[in-house]
Write a structure and sequence with these properties.
181 residues; mainly beta; five-stranded antiparallel beta sheet; four-stranded antiparallel beta sheet; 1 helix; 15% helix
């Protein structure tokens, strides 16, 4: 009788250990994209786990005071008390304050998105700067280009981010990423 009790107790202890281990690894490997209600019903893979499909347009452009919404986050540009402009993000439907993602090189003009790359356009000292940013933990922006002249407007035309001055003339253009990084 003791042997049966020891075996049953050992089996229950092992089952409890497995449940605790799976719960802890589930928390450690939690993906914030799944927080919005899980995977899309349209997407699936061979192991039965769905991958969320983007619901947002492929390209999006906003002025410095605008908002880009993508992948369960809303992105804005904000200036801190020191005068530095920041790309900030906030989870959609969240009441929390936006979080800073990265600093812009100069004064914000606007920003645009193609697929998973956000392009930041800023000016300073008679120049226009273009940076790219991909959302990820510890991600930093990459300096793509700088041009003589100060842009006041931006637009996406085909495969290019186009920069315009006050008179509507071209300051320059930058080829956009055409596939996810």
């Amino acid at each position: 009788m003791r042997i049966v009790a020891v075996i049953a107790g050992g089996a229950l202890a092992l089952l409890l250990a497995v449940i605790i281990f799976r719960a802890l690894t589930g928390v450690a490997l939690f993906d914030d994209r799944a927080a919005g209600g899980g995977a899309s019903a349209d997407a699936s893979s061979s192991d039965g786990v769905g991958a969320r499909l983007p619901e947002d347009p492929e390209d999006d452009v906003a002025a410095a005071d605008g908002v880009l919404s993508w992948n369960d986050r809303s992105y804005t540009l904000a200036q801190d008390s020191d005068g530095t402009w920041w790309l900030c993000y906030q989870y959609r439907d969240s009441d929390a304050a936006p979080l800073s993602a990265c600093a812009l090189t100069g004064n914000a003009v606007g920003f645009a998105r193609r697929e998973n790359v956000i392009y930041l356009v800023s000016t300073g000292s008679g120049r226009t700067f273009v940076q790219s940013y991909v959302y990820a933990d510890g991600s930093l922006p990459a300096d793509l280009a700088d041009f003589d002249g100060e842009a006041v407007d931006i637009d996406i035309d085909g495969g290019e981010l186009r920069l315009f001055d006050q008179a509507g003339g071209s300051v320059g253009s930058v080829p956009l990423q055409t596939s996810a990084l």
